[in-house]
Amino acid sequence: MLFRRRKPDGVFDRVRTYLWPRRSFSRSLRYFSKRILRLKATPHAVAAGVAAGVFASFFPLGFHFIIAFAVSWVIAGNLVAAALGTALGNPLTFPLLWGASWETGKLILHERLPAHGPPAHLGDMLHNLAFSQLWGPILKPMTIGAVPLGLIFGLIFYGITRWGMATFREQRRKRLADRAGRTGREVPAE
User: Fold this and answer.
1) Contact 164, 33 (CB under 8 A)
2) Poorest-confidence range of 53-57, 127-131, 136-140, 147-151?
């Protein structure tokens, strides 16, 4: 391959890069935004896909890609944009997303937290991985709280992405029209 590394990254380097980018977080954010803006789909489809991915990132049980693809398919979103939208959920943001989901779920279920926080035997439940024991005190509130938070943030990201797509395409159309005007060619329709 032309652009392959001579010495491939090891497991530690790949994990480190996943958790902390080589250059900066702003560069990674610009990379993801360019990837989304350059998708060949309608602004609604791309924005709906991103919104589906953001919605799926709030759920505690994993399966984010499956949830994002299902929601994206139902609302006529782009599947690639849905996959990119799930990038909101990453190891740095999962504690915030899941903590907010848990607190929102407890609020919706009208259950008050005990003074000492989560159940005292939470470590034991996590060690044994008993889904039935985890469902009531932890996973049920998180799942119920994920729905309204996912909808709110999904709608916010839908609006931002739709506006960004429309602006990006309008600027691109103007650039192409200027370039075509200088050369005397016709502007292709998108």
Assistant:
1) yes
2) 127-131
Residues 6+ apart with CB under 8 A from 37: 164, 165, 168
Question: Is 135 within 8 Å of 13 (Cβ atoms)?
Answer: no
Q: Looking at residue 136, what DSSP letter applies? A: I
In the block, residue with structure tokens 């999904």: 154
Residue 151's domain comprises: 34-111+119-183
Give the model confidence (pLDDT) of 37-55 as tens digits: 777 888 899 999 999 999 9
CA distances from 99 to 68, 104, 116, 143 (A): 20, 9, 16, 11
Residue at 18 is within a domain: no
Q: Report the residue count for the chain.
A: 190
Tokens in use for 160? 């931002």
58-71 pLDDT, tens digit per residue, is: 988 778 899 999 99
| Structure-token match 């799926």, residue found | 56
Coil vs helix vs strand at 120: coil
Residue pair 93/54 in contact (Cβ under 8 Å)? The answer is no
Number of structural domains (the chain) is 1
